[in-house]
Each structure stands twice: as C-alpha cells, then as structure tokens.
Amino acid sequence: MSRNTKIVLGIIGALVILCVVVIAGAIIAVSVMGESIVENMIIEDPAEVAEAADKIADYELPPGYEERMVMNIIFGKMLLIGPEDQSDKPMITLMQISSIVGSDEMDQEQYRQQMQQSMELQASQREMYMQLVDESEVEIAGQEVTLMTYEGDTDYGGTMRQVVSDIFEVNDSLIMLMIMGEIESWPESDLEAFIESIQ
What's the predicted TM-score (pTM) here? Predict the structure, then answer.
C-alpha cells in the first residue's frame, strides 16, 4: 500500500467520529444494495470531478496539484486533491457537510472535541500517535477560521502532519478543510496560498 493511499485512508478515518451514525447507515446500504452504490459514490472522471469541485468552493490549486476524485457520501461530499506526480506531498480534502450533519449553530468546541477523539481513534488503529501541536487563526472566505495542527510519528519512520479546520461557510454550505502528509515533503507556502484562495 502506497503512502498516499495510507494518507487518503487516514483522511477518511479522521472523519469517523464526526458522522459515525450516518456512516453506519451507509454501510448497511452498501451491504444491501451491492457495488452499484459504491460506484455512484466515487467520481474520478476529470470533467465530472472539476464540475463537482466548482460546486464546493472556488480556489487556486497549489503548483503540481490536481483534483483527484469526489466522494458522494450521505453526510456530504469529499473532494480529494493531490500531487500530479503521485509524490509524497500532502493530500488535501475539502468536505462539504450536508444539513443532516451540520448547521449554522454547530458548537465549534464540541466539533473540536470530536476531532480530537477522532485523531486518538485514528492513531490507535494505525499505531501512530498524533498530538495537537498548534492552533492558529486564518482568514478563509472572509471568516476567521481556526486551524488545528496535529503531528505524530508513523510506523515507517516518518513524521506525519495533519491540519484540520473549524467548519466555515462557502456558497451557503458548511465546509471543512483537512491537509495530511509527511512533514519532510510539506510545501508550506503553497498550502498557505491555497488556503488563502478559498472562496
């Protein structure tokens, strides 16, 4: 399994606590309806991915990055953005949260607690110990948004970084940003520019 595949799995795993009940329903649906529902969940055609991405947010891709896929999941949509050369640069996820899960009244403190629990669950399952090392305020789409940075050692000797945002609003939708990858290949300025470009 490639490192980028592990990263994608980690990104998905980090969302489990936020929507565990909804995902349980999705698992039941998959077992009942078979592979056809899975095929409808994942969009990989570049034109369709670009069209779906436009509905999530406007942004400027970091140099050397491309929109990889969109996952239609019951709790929303997940857009995965990664390096064109399949390198170990970080993977970027923008998640559009449906009204089933989120609302304008969402308690950000509760959200942070859920994310912390998710990181601990992810760490225990993958033998990786992620710790909250920084919280910073950035402006995204005209809103003050907290970015939480987690770091931890991997089972193959590297150090992983995961940046997760508070929930913010774009185009009347609730959005969450997550970036995950190895510190050694972390393009700091490119990712900062990407975050600033989100509208």
Answer: 0.75
